[in-house]
């Protein structure tokens, strides 16, 4: 499948691997793809993120992703659903971090000597497969970084939730990339 990726899309995937390595994560996930997109200064996805005002709010996105990582990757929607069952995720995170240190639930393995190639987790695999489907549906010959961004906006989970919280939705990205380009983040 990677032979169909543009140079920009390949750079995003490589950047995601690097983010996973720096974090000591056991696998590359969708959040790493989003972080890699935020790092890019070239490509169609970068253009869309800048047009939607996310380029200047990248730190807020990184912070939201970090908070989700502290909750073991649970989205706000997941935390709210558990709260409906009487489970306070914030309290659980606080207790675990009190006993084992800040970020104990993140799954990062910085101190565990992780080495070797990073596999792609389910979230990253699903995102890249969805990017392929979006490219095919749009009759695009290659999978670009914009297709990865579009896939992140429609996939349930932390990345899509964080993007939506910052006004970046499938519809707004499509308007910027393929429409009038007057979309504004909310």
TrEMBL record:
Cite the Clp R domain residue spans from the record: 2-186
One Pfam short name: Clp_N
What keywords does the record list, in alphabetical order? Repeat
Q: Does the keyword Repeat apply?
A: yes
Q: Which PROSITE patterns match?
A: CLP_R (PS51903)
> Which InterPro entries does UniProt cross-reference here?
Clp_N_dom_sf, Clp_R_N
Q: What is this protein called?
A: Peptidase
Organism, scientific name:
Streptomyces pseudovenezuelae
């Amino acid at each position: 499948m990677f032979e169909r990726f543009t140079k920009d899309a390949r750079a995003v995937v490589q950047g995601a691997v690097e983010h996973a390595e720096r974090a000591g994560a056991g696998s590359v996930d969708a959040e790493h793809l989003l972080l890699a997109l935020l790092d890019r200064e070239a490509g169609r996805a970068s253009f869309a993120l800048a047009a939607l005002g996310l380029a200047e709010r990248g730190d807020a996105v990184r912070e939201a992703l970090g908070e989700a990582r502290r909750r073991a990757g649970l989205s706000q929607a997941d935390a709210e659903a558990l709260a409906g069952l009487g489970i306070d995720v914030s309290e659980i995170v606080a207790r675990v971090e009190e006993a084992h240190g800040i970020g104990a639930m993140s799954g990062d393995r910085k101190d565990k000597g992780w080495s070797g190639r990073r596999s792609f987790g389910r979230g990253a695999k699903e995102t890249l497969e969805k990017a392929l489907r979006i490219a095919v549906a749009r009759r695009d010959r290659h999978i670009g970084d914009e297709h990865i961004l579009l896939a992140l906006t429609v996939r349930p989970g932390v990345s899509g939730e964080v993007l939506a919280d910052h006004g970046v939705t499938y519809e707004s990205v499509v308007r910027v990339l393929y429409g009038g380009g007057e979309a504004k983040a909310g």
